[in-house]
Amino acid sequence: MNQQYDMAQEHEITLVEAVNLALHRAMLADESVVMLGEDIGKNGGVFRATDGLQQEFGFARVMDTPLAETTIAGAAVGMSVAGLKPVAEIQFMGFIFATLEHLVCHAARMRNRTRGRLTCPMVLRAPFGGGIHAPEHHSESTEALFAHIPGLRVVIPSSPARAYGLLLAAINNPDPVIFLEPKRLYRAEKHDVIDNGEALPLDTCFTLREGQDVTLISWGACIKECLAVCDALADEVSIELIDLATIKPIDFVTLENSIKKTGRCVIVHEAAKTCGVGAEIAAYVAEHLMPYCKSPVKRLTGFDTVMPYFRNEQHYMISEVDIADAIRTTMAASF
Amino acid sequence: MTLHNLLMPLQYLTADGEVLSEGKLAKELPECAKDESLLIQAYRWMSLTRAFDQKAVALQRTGIIGTYPSSLGQEAISVACGMALEAEDSFVPYYRDHGSFLVRGQLIEHLLLYWGGDERGSAFSPEKMAELDMPICVPIATQASHAVGIASAFKIQQKKQVVLCTLGDGASSKGDFLEALNLAGSWHLPVIFVINNNQWAISVPRHIQSGAPSLAQKANGAGIANIQVDGNDFIAMYEALSEALQRARKGKGPMVIEAISYRLSDHTTADDASRYRDQEEVDNAWKKEPIKRLQSYIHNQGYWDKKAEACMQDDLHTLLEKSVAKYQGIAAEQPEAMFDHLYEQWPSNMDDQVDACSEKFARNRDGGSL
User: Packing angle between helix A69-81 and helix B142-156, nearest 10 degrees?
Assistant: First the structure.
């Protein structure tokens, strides 16, 4: 192992740098970890998430693929069956749909359909979400598509430290993990990340702010605005902010304990409303927590529209003002 | 038999099992054509494959297994694939490869378990079969992507194993196959693709499937060596496969073999091919079927006689009856088994669904009561 990684080091880095750090750490720790994707080699990925990795580990472990998303996912299935731990990159979530057949029909069910004889320990990474004035097809949030598939795990980090720890966990996991990176946060802030190789749990959400009055649940880039609203409304309302982080499986234990305490729940996600992950959480509250609720569950989500091209993108994106309004509405509501 | 733009497929035996000795197709017989033991084995496997097919169709008709795709008429391709591979290689099949599975060591009762709707049919990895043989692949051509993944793993792991992937003529139209070819050529992978061109993709004939004069030549666009072979000539199939596998093992890259054959059966037991193709075409295709051809050849060589044939048919009958009895003796899994292999690390938020499954089972047992 490289000398400089023998000891835990603290780095002040961005989320995308944390992704790179975790990938680097995973490749040092386990030579079965390999990467494949478009432009991930010399170019280091279009967001630089794989910067320097091919130079250090060679083409055999950091493979530039032809421009073929179906093959990236399908080859990752084959590699993982054959004993490698592929970490495949899809350049943008807007191009992930060509991988669906391999994820749904093979990666997600290989363990089940061979009764454990063959497995697919693979990670499919993709940047997702809007708000960066990107070209068409570069701003989607379709995490619910994957969360609906039995056999997959879906993970979304929202800070550099969680990106580092959750990505290591995803790579260590013996089953396929869809790892969606909120690209609006890629370079939004620098935080301290300890490069100690420690993975975070893949079935636990993170309580970012403790509070008494209302449970605010979100994930991905919206966490940034949620945190700002917690601070801005601190004198007015005591908000418990939970970063869902593992979209599948959802840690309902933490959500339940919080909602039992606060009696109120606001869910914020950038993805479209209908059949979004927020609907799953709202359904859980309806099924299990109605006696504890002081007001109806509030969903603040993207519209059921095509993601607007960037001139009007801001009218779709969820602002701090929107979140503050949802919190106040929920605080004022009752049954 | 109408063959679309037939070029010059590799062929050693005529449809009657005579050595092709005249004309532009004639070639010197390869070593395997003189290998009595190998040819008798091949003939036995092909005969078992056909007998298994007949039995499986009968079992479907009586409701003992589900929809089943016969490999009638394509036994030489399937058996040659199984026999040309080494045990440690990876076989990445589609869904009409019963012969390959049998040669690779898969038990008949396990094949029936698969077609009988039980996941455990894909669970078994017999001693003889490589651990990395993939299960039957129903989504068309997706296995081609997995094959290049396994082949690149072998290359990265510096292993000598190779991958053999089968697909149908219909699958050669799909993006997965073309993308996989492109990657195999680009990364110079140890993988062989065998296109079982049986002329029909359910009801779509070869000439509607593609305007390419041969399906093998689709490999040209990926810089991959390719060959057309008479898929009903076991000797030609075995020779082509052996050479392709040897090349791949030596690091000389991938190859595509288009094995030209004919689907003598319906697509599956759920299909009725008389709706879309003429009986005359099928009758003509029967004249070129592979088992009779190999039988004539080994008979002419003095490797086989009527007594051996009768003895083998008895053995096959006994084996099939025993295997069917074993299959029918395997009880279905408990309903909760559907949760057993979803994830290695169980998501505890699904506990209530397992309980609900048990309760549902109890509630509906013996039809339940309203």
Answer: 60
pLDDT for A203 equals 93
Last residue of a domain, one of A145, A172, A195: A195
Number of domains in chain B: 2
Residue of B nearest to A113 (CA): B119
Catalytic residue, from A137, A138, A148, A315: name it.
Answer: A138
* A239 and A270 within one domain: yes
pLDDT bin (cut points 50, 70, 90) of residue B131 is confident
> B-contacting residues of A 155-194, CB under 8 Å?
173-175
Contacting residues of B for A68, CB less than 8 Å apart: 179, 182-183
**B201 and B350 within one domain:** no
What ipTM was reported for this prediction? 0.92
- A200 assigned to some structural domain: no
Mean pLDDT to the nearest integer, B243-249: 97
Minimal Cα–Cα distance from A89 to chain B, Å? Answer: 15
CB contact under 8 A, A66 and B123: no
Q: What is the pTM of this model?
A: 0.94
The answer as to whether A66 is a domain residue is: yes
Pair (A128, A105) in one structural domain: yes
Structural domain span for residue B341: 335-367
Signed CA dihedral, A319, A323, A329, A334: sign only: positive
A302 touching B, CB under 8 A? no
Q: Is B348 near chain A, with CB under 8 Å?
A: yes
